[in-house]
Amino acid sequence: MITVEDLSKRFGTTLAVHDISFTIQKGEVVGFLGPNGAGKTTTMRILAGSLGATSGHAIIDDLDVFKHPRRVKRRIGYLPERPPLYGGMTVESFIRFSANIKGASEPNAATRQVLHRVGLQQMSHRLIGHLSKGYRQRVGLAQALVHDPDVLILDEPTSNLDPAQRVEIRDLIQELAEGDRTVILSTHVLSEVEDICERVIIIDRGRLLTTDRIDALARETRRIKLRVARREPELADRLASLSGVVEVHEEPDGRFTLLTEHDIRADIARFACQYDLLELTGQERLEDVYLRLISGSGPDDPETTGTQEPVSSEQQT
Amino acid sequence: MRNILVLSKRELQAYFTSPTGWLFLCAFLVITGFFFASMVGYYAMQTTELGMGSYSQDQFDMGEYLVAPFFANTSVILLMLCPALSMRLFAEDRKQGSLELLLTSPISTFEIVMGKYLGSMGFVLIMLLATAHYPIMLYWLGEPDTGVVFSSYLAMLLLVGSFMAVGLLTSAFTDNQVVALAISFSLLLLFWVISWADNSGSGSMGDVLSYVSMLSHMEQLGKGLVHLKDIVYYLSFIGVALFATQQRVEAFRWR
After folding, report:
1. How many helices (H) and strands (E) does chain B have?
2. CATH node for A222-283
3. Is some CB atom of chain A closer than 8 A to the CB atom of B105?
4. Residues of A in contact with B96 (CB under 8 A)
5. What angle do CA A155, A160, A164 make, to 5 degrees?
6. ipTM at complex level
7. Is the pTM of this model over 0.80?
8. Residue ranges covered by each domain of chain A
9. Is the Cβ pair B105, A83 closer than 8 Å?
C-alpha cells in the first residue's frame, strides 16, 4: 500500500529526514512516533504531497508520489498539525469546497455524509472561526475524509485538545480506521498509540529506529516488578547476583524493580518462590520501549545535531 | 477548469463574507462619486463660460474633457486600493495554514494561481461595473463618445488586471499581509511613475522607461485609441506576473 524507500529531505544544511524506508500494508493503523523535530511532520508532508523529497521514493498504491501527484492526492486524506481551515467560511460551505477541489464524485452527498460521520450536522451553518478547538479538529478531519480516501495521514490530531475532546477524537479515529482504510497517525500520547495502532514507526533525528508491531516490541520485557511476603535483608543482593539482572531498586512501597538484560520473568519467579512470591509483573510498556530507543540513538551525526558548545563569557575574560 | 472555477468562487466569496470587501466597495464608490460630481460641475461651468465665447460645443468634447480625466483619477484610486485587495490572497493562506489544503489537494499549481487571480479579478470587476452609472448619466446629460467610454473601461480592466497580478505575486512571498501590501504598492508605484524619468534620460533610455511604464500605455487608451501594443503590454505584464507567482507557489514544495 505505502512504500517509502531511502527517503531523505534536506532543509538548507540540516538533514530533516535521513534515508528512511518502511512499508505499510493496506488496512494497517500505524503510529508514527518520535520527539519533536524528529522528522515526523516532514515525512508526512512528503507523503501527502505538499513537500518534495531531496532523494528517495514514496509509493502509494503503486503510484509514485512525485510522478503522479494528482492521482496519489486523490487517494490521500491529510490533516496537518494545524487544521487547514478558512475561518470566514461556514462548516458546510468549507467542506463542500474541499469535496470539490479533492475531486469527490458527488460533492453535496459527500459533504452531508462526512458531516454526519464526524458529528458536525448541528454545526454545519456556523462559521469555522467561531468554533472551539475540538470542533475545528473535527472540521479538519471532515476535510481529510470528504473524498473517501484509502489512506489517512493525521499529524498530531489530538494535540492541544482537552481530555474529553481528546477521547472523542481518538474514538472517531478508531472508527475511521475500521475496514480497509490505512491510517498513519503521529502523536506524543503513547497510550493513544497503544489503543489505536497495531504497529509503530519510531524515528529520531531523521533516522528510522523501528517499524515493529507493538506487541512484539513490548513482549521482550526488561523491567520486572516484584513483591514478596518475606522480606529479608539479603534479598536485594541475592536478586542482583542472579544471572541476567543488571540493576535492582528497592521501592518505598516494598516492591523491587529489576532491570534485566532480557526477559527472565520465569527465572525470577522460580527464585522468588522461596520468599513467598505475591506479585510479579512485566512493566515494559510502549513508553519504556520508546524511551529506550530514543535514548539509545545518541547524537552520532554532527550534521543533524547542534554545533559545538557555546563559549561562555567567563572563559573569554 | 472546474477546479479554477471552484477556487475562484471561494476567493470571490471571501471578499463578501467579511466586512472588508463591502467597505472597499463603499469607499471606492464614495471617492469616485465625489470625483465624478465635482468634474461634471467643473465641466458644466466651463462649457457655459466658453459657450458664450467663440468656442463651439464640439471643440469642448465630453470624452476628452470629462470621461478621460475621470478615469485617470479612478486609475489612481485603484492603484491604491488594489494592493489592499490582493494582499491576503496567498499571505492569509500561508498564515492560517490553509495553503496546506490547496497543496495536498489533487489540483495543479496553475489552477491554484488562476483560481485566486480570477476570484480577485471578479471582485474588482464588480467594483468597475458599479461605476457604470456614471457614464450612463452622461448619456442622459449629453453625448459622450462611446468609443472613449469603452476604451476607458478596457484600460481600467487591463490596469487592475496588472495591479492584481503584481499583488498576487507579492502576496506569495510573505505570510504577512501588511508586508505584501507595502511591497506591491511600492512596485506598482514604480511601474506607474517610471516614465517620469524619461524627461531626464536621453534618447533610447527614455524610450525604454516610457515603454515599461504603465502610465504611458494608458494615454492612448484613455483617448479612445486602442492600439495592439498597449494591450500586448498589459497582457504580457499580467502573464509574467502570474507565471512568476506559479513558480513561487511551486517552490513551496521544495523549500
Report:
1. 13, 0
2. 3.30.70
3. yes
4. 84-87
5. 105
6. 0.87
7. yes
8. 2-215, 222-283
9. no
